[in-house]
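User: Before I run my own analysis I want an independent prediction to cross-check against. Here's the chain; please return only the structure tokens and, at the end, one sentence I can use as a sanity check.
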Amino acid sequence: MEDLVASTTSLATSRMRAVHARRDPQPILLDPWGDRLVPAALLVASLNPEGPQSNSAPADVAEDILASITDDYLRASPAYTNVITRSRYTEDALSAALAVGVRQYVLIGAGFDSYALRRPAEAKDLQVFEVDHPATQALKKQRLAECGITVEAGVHFVAADLAREPLDAALSKTSFDRTQPTFFSWLGVTMYLTRSANMAALKSIVACSAPGSELVFSYIDQKLFQPEGAAAAALFAELEQTVKSVGEPFVSGFHPADLADDIRHLGLELVEDLNDFQLVELYDPAGVNGLKPADRSHIARVLVRGVAQQ
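Assistant: Structure tokens:
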């Protein structure tokens, strides 16, 4: 992702959630905000080399036709199912955390997430910290303003390039209280970072977390970078080529069998690790929504137990 260009994948995932809420028979996540924040023309413009700086549709394509074509494209994406199920899983885990008194929610790589706009009654006292690259946040704030949407006082936009500034340093500039248990989400990010960058990010999360804090993050099985089967190779190649084409190539993953050991020395305890097939079985067991799992996608839930070892 270029320094001055907002993330195209953040736009796509936001609209995917809206497509699911609107078009799938029994949606597992009701998130209509992508339709307002990310009009089809804006997503199409983001695929251009100049980046998503204009939301005007091609002059020769009617708005409704462009939206239909864009939605069909998103729903056919290999990433579609993972985007929907990981969002539902994360918000279920967040709901459980709220029930035991957690009152801070940090979204790392928040993109165009709309939880703060859909805030349920149980989260009325929740402080939400949306952390993302300055370019992505600038576009999101622009779209909120253009839509006439005012966010509540408990929503904090934290513009930070985490490739250059650790999370704990970025949060230290806000009202974030590191002495209080916090729920963190980190979705759709780790695959774009090197392994060393991912480990550094996890260490930074621990550094600003009170014991008992919780993190949910998504990742790709490292084996996908050396796929063994032809089907897995083809699916991975399609998805990888798509994200590469918008300047956001996949870089690394984790080995599921090693994940617990990999993060233990950082002060993190693995609680649960589910792949796409397990998520679909959990949320759409009868296949009503036609969700198709992508091989090797995972979501992990971990607890912060203590300070990372040096």
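Sanity check: Residues 40 and 68 are 9 Å apart (CA to CA).
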